Amino acid sequence: MRPVRAALPTLLKQGAGAIVLISGRGGIDPPPHHFPGSSVNAALDLLVQGLGRRYGPDGIRVNAVAPGPIASPRLAEMGQGRPATRAATPGPGLPEDVANAVAFLLSDAARLVNGTRLLVDGGGPPLAG
Q1: What is the pTM of this model?
Q2: Which end of the chain is more exposed for a tag (fewer CB within 10 A), N or C?
Q3: What DSSP designation does 70 have?
């Protein structure tokens, strides 16, 4: 919330802009082993909706990107000791996949996208289970 609060005066003064927050799939379908993080993701999604409605008329779009599994040392660590399952996706995403989604939401190509969450998960399965 603090970075959003810091950016809003400038965006309001210029009469336009875009904000993109990083959420996560856990805010939609929380896994049983990660409720605290999932709660934060759900709160971010709700914040995005509210801010989008509040500041959209001022020309400011607010959206979120909700990545699924992204190739990283953390993902590798989390996968240790768990049985392999057949994935519905081509594998974990790359950091560039998230960056591309953020760039799209910040661009004029997304001028009518406001107050929403963009899943970047390859159509992956629900997280719970």
Answers
A1: 0.83
A2: C
A3: B
Nearest to 101 by CA among 52, 64, 56: 64
Chain mean position to CA 104: 13
Query: Cα(115)–Cα(51) distance, rounded to whole angstroms?
Result: 7
Q: How far apart are CA 106 and CA 36, in angstroms?
A: 28
Strands (E), 5-122: 17-22, 60-67, 117-120
For residue 41, give its domain range: 16-78+86-120
The Cα angle at residue 80 between residues 42 and 129, in degrees rounded to 5:
45
Model confidence pLDDT, tens digit, residues 6-24: 999 999 999 999 999 999 8
**Count of domains observed in the chain:** 1
Residues forming a β-bridge with 19: 62
- Judge whether 41 lies within some domain: yes
